[in-house]
């Protein structure tokens, strides 16, 4: 999907940045939490996929609230009511009268206040990973006690010291350095350290329990059971105190919505706002998958500097596109500093992988590659299934400039010009049993 253009609405004298994309029959406003940046969001393959999936059934309205991202930054200490006015301004600018609102974390607080204040403008309210109050109180034991609050403040202040602060909010990317780098940079682009601490302090003072009984909009409360940033008890409180609210406890530990099982969350949203279950294709195909990644990308970035590194990555993108097209393959997605590619057969996949290894060497890059053939589930523009996991794990087992394959690939290319070196059997994390591994000989 082409990246949408950023536009501006006026909330009083404050400029609110927003984007509109998708062609679905309903309008859905996505109210993010904490620190956001609507343009840099599209640099994350995970976030871009999440937004694209929602845009298949809705016209999505995407915005940065006042104080962060592309919106005006120096706005003092806005109240929840003032922050909710950003939604009003954006809806007026877009020209829509009534929307479904999806609020995550702090965005859930802003969305709830807006739904209670302007019920005529909200068709559906969806809350995810949200809490009605942060601090402990005798009548709200779920809140953070003083010592816990102090730990939270210290945790978020680590941002100013260059510490990565997102992993507890997205444990599913613990083995994905590229995704961690993006998330860390996303927060830094969103606001300065002082601004983020100010925003955190404001959030710690949030308490919107008193308006819950005024919400009459059909409401869905979602929460991942193991959310490390926000206890599931907060979701139960919201569902118990919003009249007629539905509660969905989802598996997983990620607080940040676009990490973890995207499909389940998007399916719940779609079913709630349209009354239809997700109709993603369940077609299955036998494909050969190639996972390709740049070795030591962080070190290369440090050596080259931002400008030269981005130039090299742009050259690599063009090279991959041309090579894959020449061998009849498809680029499924970017994976941080790498790619997931698919081919109809293993021979063309191996040929392409070898050419790409040489191409990357010519760009001064080392690569690691995993190749596996198996049945894949087609999910829109993405792939799922055990075969995808096996190919990814093969790549992670590969040494620099090594192409590892499974026994299946070796057997299916019998009689070709490819030579294989047997490496023995190994366990691949996340899969059952042991797998015979083979390296392509140069």
UniProtKB/TrEMBL annotation:
Gene3D superfamilies to which the protein is assigned, alphabetical: alpha/beta hydrolase, Nucleotide cyclase
Please indicate which superkingdom the organism of origin belongs to. Bacteria
Q: Which InterPro entries match?
A: A/G_cyclase, AB_hydrolase, AB_hydrolase_1, AB_hydrolase_fold, Hydrolase_4, Nucleotide_cyclase
Q: What biological processes does GO assign it?
A: cyclic nucleotide biosynthetic process; intracellular signal transduction
Query: What CDD domains does the record point to?
Result: CHD (cd07302)
Molecular functions per Gene Ontology = adenylate cyclase activity; arylesterase activity
SMART domains tied to this protein? CYCc
State the name under which the record lists this protein: Arylesterase
PROSITE patterns attached to this UniProt entry: GUANYLATE_CYCLASE_2 (PS50125)
| Keywords per UniProt | Hydrolase
Q: What is its EC number?
A: 3.1.1.2
- Which residue intervals define the domain Guanylate cyclase in the entry? 288-395
